[in-house]
Specification:
binds N-carbamoyl-L-aspartate, single chain, alpha/beta, 311 residues, 4-stranded parallel β-sheet
Length: 311
């Protein structure tokens, strides 16, 4: 029998992005994560599932919840998890990404979780390491596990993604969360709108099959889900946004703005959130907010990802 095309072999071994992913490949992640979420609640997880496997969290960029949840995910399945952060690695001594890859190969790493400020860095590593690579956020490109955990959170509330209207609001330009969510949600049959100031919405975004709105009043109307984004000042060259106070006045989510969405619309935020900049504290802490559930689903989704990629 002929060997499967290399593209498929690679595609299944790594999780580099969700762009172009078919629902039949998305659903197994969500279904397995759903059962891991239940096991997490009862504190009964299969500790032998990844026993003997090594997971390295290779983070070239700051992260709290993503790194921690990959660490917990690996440990709950019995893997040995090691965290490598830039500050303590040889990168500061001038080692290239590819030398780092060679080192990781020599250490016989099974799963490599990579966050990097440059789009495409995890894909580059994936070509050079024997381990399965999971993209934990690369530049402004993709953040596949965030999109999966967001999809799972939404699916738990509505039973499906199909036919829902999701408004993704704020700094879309710099957001890998927005990009991965657009790909995944549209693939699953949701209607996606992006909402924000023209300076923070890429001109070509319509090509991804989304509607573009420049006011919250238009963008949130009758939405089932309102997903807020952090303003990523660290990726801005300056001059793209006004002051935080002015930003909140036009694009911040408070109860008054939320009222034009569907009653009981779900409020989401990938974190870290800036209270009073993109979201009012009362909305973030209200019972419409799924922000804490997103964090909970994050661990479950990462368990499913580590598990499925190591089969
Ligand atoms: C996001 C990220 O790093 O892309 N955070 C996260 O992973 N939870 C969003 C952000 O930094 O604003």
């Amino acid at each position: 029998r002929a060997a499967p095309p290399r593209f498929f072999a690679q595609h299944a071994r790594h999780l580099l992005g969700v762009q172009g992913m078919h629902p039949s490949r998305i659903e197994p992640f969500l279904d397995l994560a759903e059962s891991y979420a239940l096991m997490n609640r009862s504190r009964k997880t299969p500790r032998d599932r990844l026993r003997g496997r090594t997971v390295i969290n290779l983070f070239f960029e700051d992260s709290t919840r993503t790194r921690t949840s990959f660490e917990l995910a690996g440990k709950r399945l019995g893997a040995d998890v090691v965290n490598m952060t830039v500050a303590s690695s040889s990168v500061n001594k001038g080692e290239t990404l590819l030398d780092t890859a060679a080192t990781l190969n020599a250490m016989r790493t099974d799963l490599l979780v990579v966050r990097h400020s440059q789009s495409g860095a995890p894909a580059l590593l994936a070509r050079k390491v024997e381990a399965s690579v999971v993209n934990a956020g690369d530049g402004t490109h993709e953040h596949p596990t965030q999109a999966l955990l967001d999809a799972l959170t939404i699916r738990r509330h509505f039973g499906t993604l199909h036919g829902l209207t999701v408004a993704i609001c704020g700094d879309v330009s710099h957001s890998r969360v927005a990009r991965s969510n657009i790909h995944l949600l549209t693939a699953m049959g949701a209607r996606v709108r992006v909402v924000g100031p023209p300076t923070l919405i890429p001109g070509a975004i319509g090509a991804l099959g989304v509607d573009v709105h420049y006011t919250m009043e238009d963008g949130l109307r009758d939405a089932d889900v309102v997903m807020m984004l952090r303003m990523q000042r660290e990726r801005m060259s300056g001059g793209q946004v006004p002051s935080a106070r002015e930003y909140f006045r036009f694009y911040g989510l408070d109860h008054k703005r939320l009222a034009v969405a569907r009653p009981q619309a779900l409020v989401m935020h990938p974190g870290p959130m800036n209270r009073g900049v993109e979201i009012d504290s009362r909305v973030a802490d209200s019972d419409q907010s799924a922000i804490r559930e997103q964090v909970e689903m994050g661990v479950a989704v990462r368990m499913a990802v580590l598990d499925l990629l190591s089969r």
